[in-house]
Amino acid sequence: MQVEWYRGYYVSRFILETFLFEGGIKMALWDGRFKKEIDEKTNNFNASISFDKKLYKEDITGSIAHVKMLGKQGIIEEDESNKLVSSLNKLLNDIESGNLEISNDVEDIHSFVEYKLTEELGDIGKKVHTARSRNDQVALDMRLYARKEIDNIIDLLKELINVFISKSKSNVETIMPGYTHLQKAQPITFAHYLMAYVEMFLRDIDRLKDTKERLNVNPLGCCALAGTTHPIDRFYTSELLGFNSPCRNSLDGVSDRDYLMELLNDLSIIMIHLSRLSEELILWSSWEFKFITLDDAFSTGSSIMPQKKNPDIAELVRGKTGRVIGHNMSFLTTMKGLPLAYNKDLQEDKETLFDSIDTVKLCIETVIPMINTMKINKEITEKAVREGFINATDCADYLVKKGVPFRSAYKIVGELVAYSIDNNKTLDTLSIDEYKNYSSLFEKDIYDVIDPKTCVRQRKSYGGPAFDNVIKMISEIEKIVNKI
Ligand code: ARG
Questions:
Q1: Which class would CATH give 3-36+51-130?
Q2: Distance between CA atoms of 154 and 484, rounded to whole angstroms?
Q3: Is there an atom of ligand 1 within 6 Å of 135 CB?
């Protein structure tokens, strides 16, 4: 199999070199104007094939739409158009089935596709680039690629949200401390906490959808920069490729990479959400907190300390965030100061986008099972709520409900807290007489009001952690997710 592939490759390469391309496959698309071949190292520096081969499907799909349009408009013969379409389909099949490897001998994926067509169809193959430039071709490929990957990432985010929802459902009554400044603040529940991340992921999906809507215009037919004298039909290719419309201005069409800047920013925000989550998982799984236990499958040991269980996977997600933000910054910097229209600097959009997309997908895929398998240590989170005067606001609100102005109630409870600390007590263990020393309005029902479960149950304001609130919130979100 392997041997046959090589034989096939060399035979076709021989034919190509000898009969079709005079100088061989390494000959550049721009042959004619130049007297000398490009310097080999410069050639490698200039080439993008090693990474833009990833765009083969988009390049072929775009080319199919293009040659169909050329045939329909009579720019090439219908029979030529049909031959080009079937050759392009065959090329796609051959690549997908592994029968054809994309060679690194050409400059880029666009040259590769054209070489292959010419190898198979001769002069007809050479017609594929009529009324087209690599400038609009690459702009098209990138939009098709970004559009497809946005859908893939949305699917993954949906999967992630569903895991968060199912964890939330089993933790509606799991009380835990909520923090501000990483100091215990007020009691919440683990479900309320997890659902906060769901809100972030839903916004991430919204942002991706917005970006997709804006990017969904067709640059094909902008050609090099100034359209063409051929009677092309850009609305037809837009329809074939599922775009809302052709982009309006040919100069803009080939130089616009706004949608990539937007997308890189969307991806950075996703990573920042995953990173904040990771940071908390790392903290919650530490010996000091022990709120959660990460599954062994998502932790690693130490080479020297036998007791260690390290949250490496969460740390890596946090770490890879820097990489995606870096790509975002690097591409913004690339774009700054570029004159219209196409400049080769734009080739730098590929590796930044590809790596960002791959990283985001990998991280979401890793976080899904990590969340799914993590154990939440309910007794520990509930015990943590009983320390640190987390019910002090509720104690003050008790007085407010009896007519004391909030600021005065705040002061009374502040003094009670100071007294408790000095006497090694908590608000739950103070006697009613001790309470009354600070305000005669305190009655025995204060103990129920400051019970953490009551504190949560009473936080019924819209968006708050009360059990019923969160149950409602979960079912609302389930409906939203089902519609995505
Ligand atoms: N590899 C190039 C890119 O990624 C393709 C477009 C080349 N166009 C040109 N005029 N050299 O941007």
A1: mainly alpha
A2: 9
A3: yes
Q: How far, in Å, from the CA of 283 to the mean position of ligand 1?
A: 46
CATH 1.10.40.30 spans which residues of the chain? 387-483
Residues noted as catalytic:
181, 302
Residue among 177, 165, 207, 19 at smallest CA distance from 476: 165
Ligand 1, atom 7, lies closest to the CA of 134
Q: What per-residue confidence (pLDDT) applies to 17?
A: 44
Residue nearest to atom 10 of ligand 1 (CA): 135
Domain 136-177+187-221+248-382 CATH superfamily: Fumarase/aspartase (Central domain) (1.20.200.10)
Q: Measuring CA to CA, which residue among 265, 268, 260 is closest to residue 353?
A: 260
pTM over 0.70: yes
User: pLDDT tens digits, residue range 135-179?
Assistant: 999 999 999 999 999 999 999 999 999 999 999 999 999 999 999
Neighbours of 186 (CB within 10 A): 20
Q: Which of 163, 270, 273 is nearest to 208 (CA)?
A: 270
- Quote the ligand 1 centre to 344 CA distance (angstroms): 6
Rg (CA), the chain: 31
Q: How far apart are CA 324 and CA 153, in angstroms?
A: 15
Is residue 456 within 8 Å of 175, Cβ to Cβ?
yes
| Domain covering 387-483 assigned CATH 3.40.50.300 in the classification | no
- Mention every residue, 6+ apart, whose C-beta is less than 8 A from residue 222: 133, 135, 136, 139, 247, 250, 251, 253, 254
46 lines ligand 1 (CB under 6 A): no
Ligand 1 close to Cβ of residue 83 (< 6 A): no
Nearest CA to ligand 1 atom 3: 347
